[in-house]
Design goal:
Length: about 80
């Protein structure tokens, strides 16, 4: 692998996928496979949903104006 890295660099075909019958080197992102990228996307989506849920909880806890009943904002 070190020789392949020297020849082709880190984005060249220097990595092998585990569990494959053939030993043809591939670029790193191809060797990692789509499963890794899919897991990262799922993790980002979970983080986005968690941030939305926390924002909704903060909004629900905001005090309201005693006169008009409107929720107070960060500016007010």
């Amino acid at each position: 692998m070190v020789q392949k890295l020297r020849e082709h660099g880190p984005v060249g075909p220097a990595f092998w996928r585990f569990g494959r019958d053939h030993r043809q080197p591939q670029p790193l992102l191809d060797a990692i496979g789509d499963a890794y990228l899919a897991r990262r996307q799922v993790a980002r989506e979970e983080q986005r949903r968690r941030a939305e849920r926390e924002a909704a909880q903060r909004e629900a806890r905001r005090p309201a104006c005693a006169d008009c009943g409107k929720k107070l904002t960060d500016a007010r």
